């Protein structure tokens, strides 16, 4: 049975706001009227290796730089591996964990009944304003009934909204070896894209032995956003949207 969570206990603000939250991705804020809508939920999706984890980590790092606490909830089997990957980009979150403004949390996707309390506890532990769940799709791997999965994802997103935190969640688009999309869905679960406020699609194409990356703002409610497919790069400093 999913645990009932008393969201009133949350110490984060429970109100909607029209303010903007900077993305932490150079070149992206100006395509989004200044950033994400504060308190909204954004799906970051794309094929494997398109940069989803790096993208989310930059969002958290940006918050920490500005004094906005954050949590990173991962369902990947080896959270330490993720931390090591991020260190390569110069993202070292340990000092923020020590000063209790950042928490890195592992959620076992098999124990999905606990996810609501994991989210609330993690947010409360640092009074988080920025939250990442990477990848939310692992929930779907262990839930065979699509109706139950849809309901569960809906509950998670509603809970996140009530916290007042701005949240990035990741999923995958299944694609072939050169990055061409093989299915019609924007998420592995096939429903998340419809219940979030915004969808960002990261793409990767193999061209002549090299890799070309891009980002598409597929939807962003309450925002007059850029509508092109924008070139994007990953370097040793992380992700940036390039000016054409
Ligand atoms: N120093 C670097 N310079 C350029 N590109 C890099 C560098 N380090 C990593 N990358 C690229 O970033 C990719 C990894 O990005 P990331 O882990 O954020 O992607 P992801 O979409 O989360 O992947 P996954 O499907 O494993 O979850 C690597 O596959 C590599 O192509
Ligand atoms: Mg990843």
Q: Can you give me a brief rundown of this structure?
A:
With 244 residues, the protein is α/β, with parallel strands linked by helices. The chain has helices spanning 52-65, 79-87, 94-98, 115-126, 138-141, 146-163, 192-195; strands at residues 20-21, 36-37, 41-46, 70-74, 102-106, 130-134, 166-172, 198-207, 210-220, 229-235, 238-241.
Descriptive report:
The protein is an alpha/beta fold and 244 residues long. The protein has a single domain (16-241), classed as P-loop containing nucleotide triphosphate hydrolases (Rossmann fold, 3-Layer(aba) Sandwich). It has seven helices and eleven strands. It has helices spanning 52-65, 79-87, 94-98, 115-126, 138-141, 146-163, 192-195; strands at residues 20-21, 36-37, 41-46, 70-74, 102-106, 130-134, 166-172, 198-207, 210-220, 229-235, 238-241. The strands form two sheets. It has a nine-stranded mixed β-sheet, with helices on both faces. The chain has a two-stranded antiparallel sheet with strand order 1-2. Helix 4 runs parallel beside helix 6. The protein is globular. The structure holds adenosine-5'-triphosphate and magnesium ion. Residues 46, 48-54, 234-236 line the site of adenosine-5'-triphosphate (ATP).
């Amino acid at each position: 049975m999913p645990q009932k969570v008393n969201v009133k206990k949350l110490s984060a603000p429970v109100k909607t706001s029209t303010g903007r939250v900077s993305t932490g991705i150079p070149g992206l804020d100006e395509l989004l009227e200044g950033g994400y809508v504060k308190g909204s939920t954004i799906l970051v999706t794309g094929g494997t290796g398109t940069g989803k984890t790096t993208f989310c980590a930059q969002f958290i790092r940006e918050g920490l730089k500005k004094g906005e606490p954050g949590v990173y909830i991962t369902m990947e089997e080896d959270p330490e591996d993720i931390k090591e990957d991020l260190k390569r980009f110069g993202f070292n979150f340990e000092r923020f964990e020590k000063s209790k403004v950042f928490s890195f949390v592992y959620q076992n996707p098999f124990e999905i009944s606990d996810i609501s309390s994991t989210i609330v506890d993690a947010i409360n532990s640092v009074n988080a304003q920025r939250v990442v769940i990477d990848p939310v799709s692992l929930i779907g791997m262990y839930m065979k009934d699509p109706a139950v999965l849809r309901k569960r994802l809906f509950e998670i997103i509603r809970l996140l909204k009530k916290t007042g935190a701005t949240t990035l969640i990741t999923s995958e688009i299944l694609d072939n070896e050169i990055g061409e999309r093989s299915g019609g869905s924007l998420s592995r679960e096939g429903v998340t894209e419809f219940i979030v406020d915004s969808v960002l699609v990261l793409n990767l194409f193999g061209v002549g032995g090299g890799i070309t990356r891009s980002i598409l703002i597929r939807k962003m409610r309450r925002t007059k956003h850029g509508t092109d497919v924008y070139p994007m790069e990953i370097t040793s400093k992380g992700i940036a949207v390039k000016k054409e």
